[in-house]
Amino acid sequence: MTVSTERAPDQNAHQYTDLPRLMRLMTGDEKHGPSATSTLDVLWVLYDRVLRVTPATVDDPGRDRFLLSKGHGPMAYYAVLAAKGFLPVEWLSGFGEFASPLGQHPDRMLVPGAEIGSGSLGHGLPIAVGTALGLRAQGRTEPKVWTLVGDAELDEGSNHEAIAFAGAVGLEQLRTVVIDNGSATYGTTGGIAARFEVAGWSTATVDGRDHSALYEAFTAPHPGRPRAVVARVEPKF
Amino acid sequence: MDTMRDRFAPVVSRILDEDPRVAVVLAEIGLVPFLEAQRRHPDRVINVGIREQLLVGAGAGLALAGMRPVLHTFASFLVERPFEQVKLDFGHQGLGGVLVSAGASYDVSGGGFTHMAPGDVALLDTLDGWSVQVPGHPDEAEVLLRQAIGAGDERVYVRLSVQANREALPVDGQHLLTVREGRRGVVVAVGPLLDQVLAATEGLDVSVLYATTVRPFDAAGLRRAVGASAADVVLVEPYLAGTSTGAANDALADVPHRVLGLGVGRRELRRYGSVDEHVAAHGLDAASLRERISGFLDVGVPGVPA
């Protein structure tokens, strides 16, 4: 089964400019700290222009996968999912309440369109490795498996297990976006991309607010290698 | 006799040939017997190197992609080191898979405590939805492995050991088997400890039940075995003593009962040596078991110290 790259017209489609309003439904706060929105532009570009998945194809085995590993501060994620029709906009105002499916960390069993539940750091990339392996074993070479991690999340050793392995076996279907808001306590010698490059990944480092640059980095070919895109945004306050 | 672990790779290799949904994930340990299967199924026999967090995370990812993952390494590295991955990547994500351990409590007795995991079943007991299979013979291991891998998207832990009973029994992956019937109490022998328990209870007026499926615990089977009146139950488990006393207590909640849990002691022995020496050191040899069981059930026989 394949997923059409054509997007069905959606009369309720929201635009990028709607996202601040959608996020305010969750927080009631007009001022968002940079950390709350560090993922916003990356998520928008992915869901708007890159990922081949729609509310109608969330169970299609041929869809692209997006695994939000950095489950902290998921308001931007929920806003994008709502903007793209995966979940009702009405859900946003209940954010974090007992009866709401939208918590401070996402739960795949509760959130339509969420491929994994996350919150504990360092789980998404290893799971993404396995998902890419599983798709490959089924002969599904078209779907891509994306995961989003934070720069501080990369401190978790489980990510390094996944980075080393995926590079060594040339897991081309795997793509990782690192949101770099400079929050890792000890930083990185040689930069974040160097960690991936040394393991055999294709990498790019771009302005995480520049939609064109993100799109180019997300869609550049990288035959025989997994791809890591480091999206740099404002430092954590 | 071959060991359960000797049987593991040939059995699973055949399943790989039969079922395209099955994939094996290894972390170096146990790779060599799978090399032939890996040549036939390079995408479905995956060695991640010495990376146990990735072993479990990638296994869950395979399940997320619709595969049936079989993960294998020593129990300490499969369940204990990546425990949060087991808890979240399978449980919280609502995914299924088959964890198959080797090494058990002191199979690698010469290797010391770093290679022992007597607490594996107790640790898994903190999680919901895992069934736990503890075969007592390679033939039983084969039956239980096939059943585990064929169990849809269930979460199954299969605990393989070099310890084994002389004869295989017809295990079904669910129920306690009645091996001997008596009136003065019920002894439940788990997996490879059955032979010792049968020797220990020779001539005693007690029932002996055999358990290879310990989770879910066959509560109804235990209830039937103890009858309607007050119950005395001894559990003999090849892992941490008392692991299943809670399950037995729950099974007998509405009848007066006493439960004695025997198994591997919590205190680290800090000893190497042989498996038999560890069995004896934990009081799981037939003579020690006889003394403890007959003392608890008050079923001493003439000429034998109770």
UniProtKB/TrEMBL annotation, chain A:
Signal peptide: none annotated. GO terms for molecular function: magnesium ion binding. InterPro entries: THDP-binding (IPR029061), Transketolase_N (IPR005474). Residues 32-220 form the Transketolase N-terminal domain. SUPFAM superfamilies: Thiamin diphosphate-binding fold (THDP-binding). This is Thiamine pyrophosphate-dependent enzyme.
Automatic annotation (TrEMBL), chain B:
It comes from the Bacteria. One of its GO terms (molecular function) is magnesium ion binding. InterPro entries: PDH/Transketolase (IPR051157), THDP-binding (IPR029061), Transketo_C/PFOR_II (IPR009014), Transketolase-like_Pyr-bd (IPR005475). Residues 2-167 form the Transketolase-like pyrimidine-binding domain. It holds the Pfam family Transket_pyr. This is Transketolase. It comes from Streptomyces tabacisoli. The lineage of its organism: Bacteria, Bacillati, Actinomycetota, Actinomycetes, Kitasatosporales.
